[in-house]
Amino acid sequence: TYCDDKGLLELGDAEVSSGRSEGQPVLTLRSSMADAHVRGIFLPTLLPKAFRNVVFSVFPALSEQVEYVQEEQYFDFNIELKAIDSLLNRLVPGLSAGAGATFEGGFDSRTFDLSLGAVLPHFTYGAIKGDSVTLFLDKTLDVLAFSARSDRQHLTASTYLTGIDITGKAYQDEVRLTMGWGGSSGGTHGKLDLRGLVNGPTDVEIDLLPSELHFGLGSWKSQGTTRLHYANDELLVDSLRMRNGEERVEIEGILSKDPEKAIGFLLDGVRLDHLRPFYAGPSLHGTVSGDGRLFDAFGEPYLLSYICLDSLRVADKPVGDIKFAASWHDGRREMD
After folding, report:
1. In this structure, are residues 68 and 27 in contact, taking their beta carbons and an 8 Å threshold?
2. For each of the chain's 336 residues, which pLDDT tens digit applies?
3. H/E element holding 42?
4. Are the C-beta atoms of 147 and 169 separated by less than 8 Å?
5. SS3 246
6. In this structure, are residues 12 and 33 in contact, taking their beta carbons and an 8 Å threshold?
């Protein structure tokens, strides 16, 4: 049983055995929740910090965060989850991994190497749900490689992505990442290529390379490379420019907790049909142009904008052309 302030939780039966094989200690668990086999020296209380040291050791910029002298542990393992959801949900509300999930790999604090492979038939965390998820992580010498794939990923009850494929590699402070998805509830699909540079624990630069995104009613292509720079709890967006034929969207500025700093946007001839995957309610038709600035995005957002709606129709009802300058203050829930 497991007991906390929420009461008593029945965990079922468990059998633990230990021994030695080929000169190495072996620990085996057979239980109602999970089966596990660990061979080698395994120090579970020291593992989180040791894991962090191995990952951070890939990046010279993070060398001051790494403890190179640590207690030795080296082991390989395999785990199969069974009836463990009640315990997971108790420890992390909303988390479910499902019976049949498997994990296998190894860890060596002496050589700073690790490997992990996982297959999850499904998992849930709050509104996020994934089906047929596979994860891979490997760190050997100075290279960290990782990948994640999923047949379907629910972001909300009615929004999902399919055919998700994320792969990446980190070496000498540089990170390469490719992210793609094959479809979605809104008919979108696309692929993003990113290159990153780690300058320190809280300083990361990311370049979004020219990419193409399909939002169901057009193909949006980024114009040139977009620079993203996160430092001092601020995200600088340097010229994100997207085009779909004559339609144009631009974003530039700073996302910050400083209410005096803003991120700006520009819309030029964007068809309202193309926004359909991103909102609920009656369908809107026509085009939207304009520009604006968003302040205090992480506090009480404040928006200043000038917007033009041309040939607006709501569902099948024509409205006409609308031009307005507006401000929105989320804290007061008011529009001026």
Report:
1. no
2. 667 677 777 778 889 999 998 889 999 999 988 999 999 999 989 999 999 999 999 999 999 999 999 999 999 999 999 988 887 887 788 888 878 999 999 999 999 999 999 999 988 887 788 889 999 999 998 999 999 999 988 877 777 889 999 999 999 999 999 999 998 877 788 899 999 999 999 999 999 999 888 866 678 888 889 999 999 889 999 989 999 989 999 999 999 988 889 999 999 999 888 777 667 778 888 999 999 998 888 888 888 888 898 988 888 888 888 887 766 655 554 455
3. none
4. no
5. coil
6. yes
SS3 state of residue 159: coil
* Residues 144 and 55 sit within 8 Å (Cβ to Cβ): yes
Alpha-carbon torsion (283, 284, 290, 294), positive or negative: negative
H or E element, residue 49 = helix 47-56
Q: Are 30 and 15 in contact (CB under 8 A)?
A: yes
Closest by Cα among 251, 336, 238, 254 to 296: 254
Residues 261/236, Cβ–Cβ less than 8 Å: no
The Cα–Cα gap between 42 and 30 comes to 18
Q: Is 38 helix (H, G, I), strand (E, B) or coil?
A: strand
Q: Is 95 helix (H, G, I), strand (E, B) or coil?
A: strand
Distance from C-alpha of 273 to C-alpha of 284, rounded to nearest angstrom: 6
- Enter the tokens of residue 215: 């939002």
Which pair of tokens denotes residue 103? Answer: 């994990």
3-state helix, strand, coil in the chain (%, to 5): 10, 60, 30
What does each C-alpha distance from 82 to 32, 96, 136, 209, 274 come to in angstroms? 6, 11, 21, 42, 44
Q: Tokens standing for 292?
A: 């604006």
